[in-house]
Design a protein that fits this description.
37% of the residues lie in helices and 16% in strands. It is an alpha/beta fold. The protein binds pyridoxal-5'-phosphate. Pyridoxal-5'-phosphate binds next to helix 5.
Length: 453
């Protein structure tokens, strides 16, 4: 029997009623990708308020790699519920915060002494990583990448690349942020081709130090190992070794933003491990705690210990329920071999997506690492013109047929998959069937069936 069970058109009548109340009471800015209100969730399955069962391939934007209500996570939270909910680590500390810091120090890439601070959101982790880098190096400037996304607080917005909807209208941003192109080979900012480009994008940072900002003014380069909101772009294998060498040479720190890539999504606990990147600081959040708000920065002990007592943190950072949940997440990833599972799911997707690419002009590029997979949709393979409206139509077709997906990319033309890694093979195939029908429907509407390549 299929997992997807639809009893009403999507959105159903109760979702529509709630949407009317939502419109009256909640700000427009708190946007949501699907007009469906959730009642329950388990594993990779959502049940909406109209009793429809859907497959969730957005996973709360990559927060439930271990699945909705992962049994160990629920059990850990339950145990903590009976003990205490909040004391603030700043007032009365507790063991789970320390246990989680110890685990993250041991599990993050790099065999040097490390320390950790716990926070609430990805943006907060980014803010703190920048504070730490500036405090340690005593340098002001930060280099970020085109197509990067680092969050919605002011410094995170300054580091984020995409203008609409994330930045426009909120200027001015904190200064001393400089932007350079990422290794986005399908849409190269220098119009070069890999590998004949010889990784010009990475090497060109030396030029940036002459023409834009002096190397000795730069505290850190911040980078998502695989672009998240920017469209699931994985750089070629040489990119991070070259970038790391340049940073080391100039005493510039490397900050990896693993907020979206972390916790088994890319087939390793951290994407850095797969891409030859050993950062000085790592920002984490999302799937760290299986659905509760928790974030962390882990890094070289000497950097992490530069700021004095009371300068970092906040009232709720490292909430005890979230710490217990995170310890259970780490256990679940290990016990259930979710890194290996991510690779299997990625392969399963790639086999299907290769067929779609040969069938429909619309499917410009299939890319990703582990289970962090995406399709970039284009109007023409020749011009690679972003198919943004078509991408919205694909996503809408999907949710109307029981599959929740979200889009990405600076041009809004990427369908990305962030399914829980506990999804079964049968559920995965069912989801891919819906996505295939969506691509077929939108391609035929466009009248743009590809010549087979
Ligand atoms: C790579 C990356 N960094 C930072 C953030 C911001 O995280 P949060 O929304 O928890 O503030 C996100 C959120 O999508 C992200 O994908």
């Amino acid at each position: 029997m299929s997992t997807i069970q639809l009893h009403t058109p999507i959105p159903g009548p109760r979702s529509r009623d709630l949407m009317r109340r939502r419109d009256a009471a909640v700000v427009r800015a708190a946007y949501h990708a699907t007009p469906v209100f959730v009642a329950k969730a388990e594993g990779a399955v959502i049940e909406d308020v109209d009793g429809n069962r859907m497959l969730d391939f957005a996973g709360g934007i990559g927060c439930v790699n271990t699945g909705h209500r992962a049994p160990r996570v629920v059990e850990a939270i339950r145990r903590q519920l009976d003990r205490f909910l909040h004391t603030s680590f700043n007032v009365l500390p507790y063991e789970s915060y320390i246990a989680l810091a110890e685990r993250l120090n041991a599990l993050t890439p790099g065999k040097f002494a490390k320390k950790t601070i716990l926070l609430n959101t990805g943006a907060e982790a980014i803010e703190n990583a920048i504070k730490l880098a500036r405090a340690y190096t005593k340098r002001p400037a930060i280099i970020a990448f085109e197509d990067a996304f680092h969050g919605r607080s002011y410094m995170a917005m300054a580091l984020t690349s995409k203008t609409h909807p994330y930045k426009a209208g909120f200027e001015p941003f904190p200064g001393d942020v400089y932007r350079v192109p990422f290794a986005y080979c399908y849409s190269c900012s220098y119009s070069l081709q890999y590998p004949s480009c010889e990784l010009h994008c990475a090497r060109h940072i030396e030029d940036t130090f002459k023409r834009v900002v002096a190397a000795e003014s730069v505290a850190a380069v911040i980078v998502e190992p695989v672009l998240g909101e920017g469209g699931f772009v994985t750089p070629p294998a040489e990119f991070f070794p070259i970038l790391s060498e340049i940073c080391r040479k100039h005493g510039i720190l490397l900050i990896a933003d693993e907020v979206q890539t972390g916790f088994a999504r890319t087939g390793a606990l951290f994407a850095c491990e797969r891409l030859g990147l050993e950062p000085d600081l790592i920002a984490m959040a999302k799937s760290l705690s299986g659905g509760l708000p928790l974030a962390a920065v882990t890094g070289r002990a000497e950097i992490m210990d530069t700021p004095g007592p009371g300068t970092l943190g906040g009232t709720f950072g490292g909430n005890p329920l979230a710490c217990e949940a995170a310890l259970a997440v780490l256990e679940t990833i290990e016990t259930e071999n979710l890194c290996a599972r991510a690779n299997q799911l990625g392969d399963r997707f790639r086999r299907r997506a290769a067929e779609w690419q040969s069938r429909w002009e619309l499917v410009g590029e299939v890319r990703g690492l582990g289970a962090m997979q995406a399709l970039e949709l284009v109007r023409s393979r020749q011009t690679r013109e972003p198919a943004d409206d078509e991408t919205k139509q694909v996503s809408q077709y999907c949710y109307e047929h029981g599959l929740i997906t979200i889009t990405a990319g600076s041009y809004g033309n990427v369908i990305r998959l962030l399914m829980p890694l506990v999804v079964t093979d049968a559920q995965m195939d069912e989801a891919l069937d819906v996505l295939e029908s969506a691509l077929a429907a939108v391609s035929h509407k466009k009248g743009a069936v590809a010549q087979l390549v």
